[in-house]
Amino acid sequence: MDKKFEETMKFEPAKDNENSAREIIKSVYEALQEKGYDPINQIIGYILSGDPTYITSHNDARSVICRIERDELLEEILKEYLDI
């Protein structure tokens, strides 16, 4: 058996986008809310599928959310949830 499959890999995303991830989530949330969507459901749909059409183009939210990787968005959400 290959040795690399016996060890756990450590995932370390880039740290420079930490504040921008928070700002992106907030701005996209507000844009979705302004357009009458349920922001939580829409953001979850985007994160799970990777399909940017879950995000409104209002206030440029769709292009803004595509600037950051989905794993970075999840990391920021999890940190906030766990109060880290």
Which residue ranges are poorly predicted, with pLDDT under 50 across at least 5 consecutive positions?
none
Compressed to H and E, one letter per element, the order equals HHHH
Count of alpha and pi helical runs: 4
Rg, alpha carbons: 15 Å
Give the % helix: 40-55%
- Beta-strand percentage? under 5%
- Compute the average pLDDT: 88
Structural features, described:
It is a single chain. This protein is mostly helical. It has 4 helices and no strands. Helix 1 packs across helix 2 and helix 1 (18-34) crosses helix 4.
Quick recap of the structure?
With 84 residues, this protein is mostly helical.
Write the layout of secondary structure elements.
Blueprint: H1 18-34, H2 39-49, H3 61-65, H4 70-82
Q: Which features does this protein show?
A:
84 residues; mainly alpha; 0% strand
